[in-house]
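Re: the 169-residue chain
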Amino acid sequence: MPAGLILLLAFLAWPFLEIAAFIVIGREIGILPTLATVVGTSVLGAVLLKQQGMAALMAIRREMRHGELPPQAIGHAALIGLGGLLLLLPGFVSDIFGILLFLPPVRSLILAALARNATIVVVRGRRSGVGRTVVDLDPEEWHETTPPPRPDPTARPRITGPDDDARRP
């Protein structure tokens, strides 16, 4: 079965699973405890998202400051964000997946599975190249040239007029 079809079926089944969970849990513990649990998991999601999300962002910032590309830290931060979103949504099924995404071993397993099935391409550029057009050529399609000299930014511009030639000795 194609992965896209599986995702579509899961997306369509999700609301029915949430409603069924609400009914089953509501019958077992009552309506008020059920609603309190849903509100409590939303608050827990907000707190965890703030705490672990900030820690993940600091890890990304720390690695980038050292000139390293932090794919693991970015992956963990993205999964923490998804986990927080799932906890903020009302529902018990989404809460279970949200809590699982806040566990570092679970995130590591998901990232390892994604890494096995992904191709990562890193493109590094110069900061001075911002705004320039990039043309991708094969080695036989280009040759290296010397760039023209840049004007001195500290030099004062010389203003000339039509009479300047007449004043020269």
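The mean pLDDT is 81.
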